[in-house]
Design brief:
The protein has 141 residues and is mostly helical. The chain has five helices and two strands; from the N terminus they run H-H-H-E-E-H-H.
């Protein structure tokens, strides 16, 4: 005769249900704030990007300006750095800039007017790890 083993999985199913419900309400506001701060930090250090046109962060600094002036690159008024915002969506977060007409030109460059790219809309891997940690903590509650 083969022995019968009975396993009660009700507790495991209850835990899975809790994890599932927690994953439907992820903390997108926290993720947005981390992304916004990451992009604002790019101004403080003079750029942190991998390659122009990519949102991947890195260690490349912005090319210095030709003229010697008292303020750091893209920091004269601070408007561009302060223009970053985020909007939490049901299934993600939207991050961008508002109120600055020249943001795309600065971020991607404009060769026709000799404006080099100074990517600021980039995210560092350390910040993506922070977001991952926030999500894991949220789901495990």
């Amino acid at each position: 005769m083969i022995p019968t083993i009975k396993i009660d999985i009700t507790q495991a199913l209850a835990k899975l249900k809790r994890v599932e419900s927690r994953s439907e309400d992820l903390p997108w506001n926290q993720a947005g704030e981390i992304l916004k701060q990451s992009m604002q930090s790019n101004f403080d250090v003079g750029g942190r990007y991998s390659t122009p046109g990519s949102i991947k962060g890195g260690s490349t600094k912005w090319r210095p300006r030709k003229k010697s002036v008292a303020w750091r690159i893209l920091k004269k008024s601070g408007r561009f750095q302060k223009s970053f915002y985020y909007t939490a969506l049901g299934d993600g977060v939207k991050v961008g800039t508002k109120g600055i007409k020249y943001n795309a030109a600065q971020n991607f460059g404009r060769p026709e007017i000799n404006l080099v790219a100074r990517p600021s809309v980039v995210v560092q891997s350390v910040d993506l790890k922070k977001i991952n940690k926030v999500f894991k903590k949220h789901v495990r509650k």
